[in-house]
Amino acid sequence: MLTSHGSFQIQALTEKQLEQYFERIRLPSHLCASPPTANMLHSIVSHHSTTIPFENTELFFLNKPGPIEVDCIFEQLVLNKRGGYCYQNNLLVVSALKAIGFAVRPGIASLSLWENNTFRFQSPMHMIVFVGVKIENDVQEYLVDLGGLRWSCGLLIRDRSRVSCAGGETCELRKDGGVWMLFHKRAVWSGLPEGAFADGFTPVFSFTEESLRFKSFFFFLHPFVEVGKVMCHHSLQDYNDLNLRVATDPHHKLKKHLLISIVTPSFGNAVITDHVYRRREPQETVHQEAKHRIDDVGVFTSFLRDSFGIVLSESEAAAAAVFVGNNMCK
After folding, report:
1. Residue 192: which of 182, 203, 201, 204 has the closest Cα?
2. How far is CA 114 from CA 196, 198, 204, 274, 303, in A?
């Protein structure tokens, strides 16, 4: 089954691949045997966020962009038990959700950047996912993003829709005219980041109302339409071009910074930003919070293995040793 619009083709996982994906995210496959539901979507997103990390290690250490083709993404994230950045994680979940029978399509958002004491939105390059869930004769639309900032369920696309995130954090969707904006708020005990508004929220990304006018979910309400034929702005080639732009832009944060994150089993979040490991936890397990500056390559590889399930290749490990060694010299 393919989602098609012009050159747009993102294949669904095969039955065997879907079983392997469920095994990778530690989700019993029988829980996804019934018709798609919101609870099923939330379970898939939650399990994915705690098992498959966001990581840009190959891009950062080896200048190697992540794959875009579904089979290559599947090999990297599922079979080789590694992670990826937004394109790889979100394209994998698109393919999995399609195989289950969800109405799903990817979209593009503009990330917010704090610079010169103000927030500005960059060119649209961040991949997000729209998912439709049929409820009687209507369709509820959800936003999913398994990029670096993860909320562990689908976020209902409605003004002021809010979800609790890992580490006691909160995400909220707000609409301003024809623009939707995702906002993020840290836990009360974590302190406010630079630039936070009076309510503690900071903007994460934005996307336009136009993105939602291409109703990819209309076939739910019109059963004569062939399932899998979905309207969409972007072709797979568009995402490939964006991926290459990210990989060749020396100023993009994925090229400038080492970024790794995952949701912990206790619903906290573990993050590596350059030479700093940080773990934030919800209030019940706040005693597990930790922060370490990484100045030893053995400690670095231990964090990767134990917190993120990442085992570096020989070439990555060599580059990592230089990276950590440079930090020790500062």
Report:
1. 201
2. 10, 16, 10, 18, 28
The answer to whether 44 and 27 are in contact (CB under 8 A) is: yes
Dihedral Cα 169, 183, 97, 231, nearest 10 deg: 180
Question: Does residue 222 have a pLDDT over 90?
Answer: no
Q: What is the DSSP string of 103-167?
A: EEEEEEEEEEEEETTEEEE--S-EEEEEEEEEETTEEEEEEE--SSS--SS-EE-STTEEEEEGG
pLDDT category of residue 125 using cuts at 50, 70 and 90: confident
* Averaged pLDDT of the chain: 86
DSSP assignment string, 27-61: --GGGGSSSP-HHHHHHHHHHHHHHS-EE-HHHHH
- Packing angle of the helix pair 236-248, 86-100 (nearest 10 deg): 160
For residue 234, the model assigns a pLDDT of 60
How far apart CA 85 and CA 247 sit, in angstroms, is: 11
Q: Which two tokens stand for residue 319?
A: 């580059």
pLDDT in tens, 258-310: 999 999 999 999 999 999 999 999 889 989 999 999 999 999 999 999 999 99
Token couple for 55: 């990581």
pLDDT average, residue stretch 223-247: 62
- Helix, strand, or coil (residue 317): helix
Are the CB atoms for 73 and 82 separated by under 8 Å?
no
Rounded to 10 degrees, the C-alpha dihedral 92/97/98/104 comes to -90
More confident residue, 214 or 27: 27
The residue type of 220 is F
